[in-house]
Amino acid sequence: MELTPTRSLAQGKATEAQRRPRPGRPMPEQGRHKDLAIAMPTRAAALVQPARRKAVRRKQPRSRRVRRSRACQYIRENKTIAAMGPSFYGRVFFWIEQQPIEKPATLYHWTLLSADELTDYNAGKVLRLGGHIEASGTNWVRFNFQTHNNPGETGLSDPQLVLSTKRWYCAEFYYSLPDNEARIWLDGVEDPKLHWKGPMGGYTFPAAVTWMTFGWAEYQAAHTPWEIWIDEIAIDTKPIGCN
After folding, report:
1. What is the DSSP string of 125-142?
2. Which of 101, 114, 181, 191 is most buried, with most CB under 10 Å away?
3. SS (H, E, C) 193-218
4. Lowest mean pLDDT segment, chosen from 7-11, 60-64, 207-211
5. What is the pLDDT of residues 72-101, one digit of tens each?
6. DSSP secondary structure letters along 165-183
């Protein structure tokens, strides 16, 4: 399946992510007024699990709500990632309830997740999945690589991979550190424009990732704040999928 130019993923046949209930509502197989997907502070160890553990396909999903304005709010994890080795897959569902509606001065840049070389994600090499809203007003996906040293910051963008509000998305990634490779899927479809295969221009992946970070970061102020939900984070050495 190939991406269609300027195609929004809100169109076409419903995906597994789109069939998920709105945040805060019960899953379809659950009874009414019980087992709600609720917003609550969640410790990383309770939310992030290797994909084949039963906890990931839990009957009581614990969506986390993130509502921020020029700030960040993260779930961070360093136990599961330590067992993955230098090549691993990850998956997270996310829902954009609200995004800035004002035209940005230059752009609104956001991050959904990052693989961090060091404990401080403002230092060392960081592999990020996020996106931009620019003058057109569309919200599109980007792979970002920052070293916090020379050579600096770079990445790959796909302005045709446009996100909409008020629906679930399933984001998946594969990072192979020794191969300098990153692959990105959205709702089960890999985007070749976001396939990083390096080294490129002096950028080389870190030898190891010590932390995984999930949540939301934004870097430019907007009058209308972002409001995001995230759910069902998984990390594994094999492909995970959205089902």
Report:
1. -EEEEEEEE-TT--EEEE
2. 114
3. HHCEECCECCECCCCCCCEEEEEEEE
4. 7-11
5. 677 899 999 999 999 999 999 999 999 998
6. SSSEEEEEEEEETTTTEEE
Domains, in order of start, for the chain: 44-236 (2.60.120.200)
pTM of the predicted structure, to 2 decimals? 0.77
Query: Which of 160, 94, 112, 107 has the alpha carbon at shortest distance from 137?
Result: 107
Q: Which residue has the tokens 């039963």?
A: 54
Which residues have CB under 8 Å from 16's CB, separation 6+? 170, 187, 188, 242, 243
Cβ-contact 157, 74 below 8 angstroms = no
Label each residue of 75-99 as H, E or C.
EEECCCHHHCCCEEEEEEEEEEEEC
Contacts of residue 15, Cβ cutoff 8 Å, sequence gap at least 6: 9, 170, 187, 188, 242
Q: Which residues contact 43 (CB under 8 A, 6 or more apart)?
A: none
* Pairwise CA distance, residues 5 & 137, whole Å: 16
